[in-house]
Amino acid sequence: VTDWYPQGKTSGRSRFNLPGKMAWAVMESPAIVVMLYCMFTIPAAQSIELPLANWVMATLYTIHYIYRALISPLFLNPSMSPIHPFIFISALSFQIINATCIGGYLAGYGPTAAEDWAGTAPRIAMGITVFFAGFLGNIYHDDELREIRRASARAQKRKLEAQGERSKEGKVDKVYKIPENGLFRWILYPHYFCEWIEWCGFWLIGGLACTPARNFVLNEVSTMLPRALNGRRWYIERFGAETVGSRKAVIPGLI
Fold it and tell me: d(Cα 141, Cα 182) in Å, to the nearest integer?
């Protein structure tokens, strides 16, 4: 196991690095494109009309990635660290494969009749509730991290103005702190934890037999958990064990 992960706070210098915001948007956007392509082409090719539940799942998936791939990096994040091409290619490949699996399942290779969803209304309602609880929690904790950069940008701007200089648009010095609000009081990566909750809700909508949704959750946990554990070590090295305190990495009271 290696701590090498050239993205975000652990991003390193490399001549091959890609601009953070644009690279993130490009590598995450196939999730939207592939999902919509599947949902609008496969049913037409098979001459079937999909049940409402299929469209609900596809819509939730698309909503998440509109936020994650477009709104967050391009409009909300004050800055983003460079991304190594290895991360870019890996993430791009995952999004294409994952969206193909989930989109294909929802668009024609999974349940395609209303009868397939008979009696599942309570489960779907519960899944939607869990999904949005995780989604809103994800956005909230993302914004707590953004506020660190926004506060840094404001302070940087005031300092330059006091010196009679103009700040460079979009240029924000890297500043790292441990937020105190929300689940940050107990864990260092609550945005990861909330995203897991979100996709567990998505899986709940599809049911335990929805293999693509289950695999998505497992992939999320297996890739994000090591990053969270690595990140906790990074926080301890940077701020000290006393400052990190009893905070776990990603699951309150456990990990």
Answer: 7
| Other residues' Cβ atoms within 10 Å of the Cβ of residue 137 | 19
Q: Is the pTM higher than 0.90?
A: yes
* Structural Rg of the chain based on CA atoms: 20
CA distance 45 to 243: 58
Q: Which residue has the tokens 């919509």?
A: 36
From 131, 146, 149, select the one nearest 194 (Cα to Cα): 131
- SS3 of 172, please? coil
Give, as one character, the DSSP assignment of residue 29: T
Q: Rounded to an integer, what distance in angstroms lies between the CA atom of residue 92 and that of residue 98?
A: 10
pLDDT tens for 157-208 read 888 888 877 655 556 667 889 999 999 999 999 999 999 999 999 999 999 9
DSSP class of residue 168 equals: P
Q: How far apart (Å, rounded) are the C-alpha atoms in residues 113 and 222?
A: 33
**Beta bridge partner(s), residue 18:** 83
The span from the CA of 201 to the CA of 199, in Å, is 5
